[in-house]
TrEMBL record:
It holds the Pfam family Dimer_Tnp_hAT. Residues 73-98 are annotated as: Disordered. Residues 131-207 form the HAT C-terminal dimerisation domain. It comes from Umbra pygmaea. Residues 82-98 have a biased composition (Low complexity). This is HAT C-terminal dimerisation domain-containing protein.
Amino acid sequence: QKKGNATQESTVQLGSHLQEGLHSRCGGYESFRALALATLLDPRLKNMAFGNAAKAQEAEKHMTLECASLMRSNTNPEPEMSTSDPSPSTSPLTSTSKPVETQDSLWELFDTRIHQTQMLHNATADATVEVKKYINDAYLPRTHDPLTYWKERAVICPHLYVLAKKYLCIPATSVPCERIFSKAGEIICKKRSRLSTSTAEKLIFLNK
């Protein structure tokens, strides 16, 4: 917008160079799953921070899948029904009652599959509801703390709260570690090339 309203040629060129630099350096950020989920889990931004609506929907899908996986891992398996051997006085062929299944029943495989499918379906449905509830919730003002937001909603969205603690701890920049590398190059120089590994590590630690 600034570039479109500019009248000087130098200003237009500067804006074009800035746009090209941003696209080349930051163009793939929305495709990086960790950063996309961190953006989506920020209640100040959610899906409005995405420049590509398809990438926002993809991030929402990944968040739903992770939430469902977390739900399934937190679900305790139901206790198996204990089966007893049929009474010796009653023959399965002559009895009119329902036969009692033994532990090695052929139906056990089907029962296990149905139980797992039902758990998968329920977890996916519950995760979709929790994600939609969060997405449709009001946006947090930009100056507010998103961690406080999630702490207050830990009971309402418990699984998204766990994901928020996981993804919102991602450092926004790699500048601090880059500065440590630069400082290491200043400490280990030609005049101090005989420094041992442990001494260099202690010097960098004390400096930073």
